[in-house]
Amino acid sequence: MAKKKTSGRLLSAADIDTAHDLDFEIVDVPEWGGEVKVQSLPADIALRFSEEVNLPDIDKKQLFIRLLAMSLVDDAGTRLYTDEQVEKLARKNLKVLMRLSKTAMALNGFGDAARALAEAKNASSETAAADVSLTDSRPN
Fold first, then answer.
1. Within 10 Å of residue 131's Cβ, how many Cβ atoms?
2. I need a labelling partner for 138 at 20 to 30 A (CA). Which of 16, 69, 105, 123 fits?
3. Are 39 and 71 in contact (CB under 8 A)?
4. Residue of 30, 110, 31 lying closest to 70 (CA atoms)
5. Who contacts 94 (Cβ-Cβ below 8 Å, separation ≥6)?
6. Is residue 54 part of a domain?
7. Terminal CA-to-CA distance of the chain, rounded, Å?
């Protein structure tokens, strides 16, 4: 069965590669005297960050600041803070950092969406564990 044609043109890999698809939001920060651009992370970086969240030796208190440091960009999309400069950002007003981090989390699909995904993963892990225990208890 043939697929129904949509109204758009068929994209090539080059079209996809050059598409500017990272979401962003310009946020007013009166405490800093201006605005900042908070941008979503590319998929590879966002996935790596979400994996790091579950590492046992990670400083969870610093995670939201790290996410924000990765999400604050200039007009060209270049990060304002490198990984080595996260501590500098951590010395800023906590209320401001939390407000901006909420924007970064929303742009990246973290927060409620991340919690729902984690719950689904836990449920499927529990189901898989139940399936394994049932399988293991069957006679050969």
1. 10
2. 123
3. yes
4. 110
5. none
6. yes
7. 44
